[in-house]
Design brief:
This protein is α/β, with parallel strands linked by helices and 291 residues long. It contains six helices and 14 strands. It folds into two domains: 186 residues, Vaccinia Virus protein VP39 (Rossmann fold, 3-Layer(aba) Sandwich), CATH 3.40.50; 73 residues. It is elongated and about 70 Å long. It binds S-adenosylmethionine. S-adenosylmethionine binds next to α1 and β2.
Amino acid sequence: MNERDWVAWHRTYDDPESRQSWRLGVVQRRIREALDAAPAGPIRLASLCAGDGRDLLGVLADHARAPDVTAVLVEQHPDLAARARDRAAGLAGVRVVTGDAGLVDSWREVVPVDVLLLCGIFGNVPDGDIARTVAALPGLCRPGATVVWTRSRRPPDLVPIVAGWFGDAGFEETSFDDSADGMAGVGVAVRRGDGRLFAFFPDTDHAFVQELDPGTGAGKGTRFDLPFHRVDTFAIAHWGAFLYLFAVVDRTPRLYSLRPASGEVKLVRDLLPFTVIGAGVSSCAPLLERE
Ligand SMILES: C[S@@+](CC[C@H](N)C(=O)[O-])C[C@H]1O[C@@H](n2cnc3c(N)ncnc32)[C@H](O)[C@@H]1O
């Protein structure tokens, strides 16, 4: 993240009319909604680059679900982390880590999370880091998890692109609030993991992918035709909103992606530097079951 005086940055919250205070109000409303909607049982939450933690801790101070929450706030600046720790006094499930939020080890105890706060981050890191962070979220968030994120809308406005990255990672945008001056935004994205089963049919003259009924094994819904045939070996995996098809076609190992929501098939890489052996339905995502 870029170098700034983050303690001074927090002083902008002292002005209730500031854009930052508006943003705080929206973030807190979205956190409340996520907690209100959380199913009964434990709720795991992480706030990355948490600052003094006033957004989350302000909500937990009086929310009925606070006793169910295990939360980790990761903040690099020791003074801000200390302030967050003071604010969290009395909240048994909250831990404040003084450390680097980019290292998942700092907050691994709450992964996969039910709620993730990425506030005040995307305006301060390179675009490529935002893309990589969003692409990694399916492995860090439970299906149904809520991610609250913020980003300045100053030109060049990256918000539509970031929203697209969330879509590519299998998240649905459930709200987006713009400040009155149009310069700041707060997005909420919910991870849709609908547990659908897809299979790859490498028929010699008509390869296709189709969803299967997990109870009967019968094909159902659209057949996604693939732009190749004569498949020698293949494997299928998924990540976010995409299926990935590894196939040796005419002795050439290739990787294709298929997005079931749109039916779009793309050649990701020709001439893979390895061969493909084996078949089946697999997942390249980490397992997300809880203990
Ligand atoms: C723009 S502030 C946002 C604070 C808080 N999330 C909010 O919205 O009020 C960014 C915060 O990220 C912290 N930070 C910067 N790099 C970090 C890193 N690698 N790991 C953890 N915190 C970091 C800064 O110290 C600062 O408090």
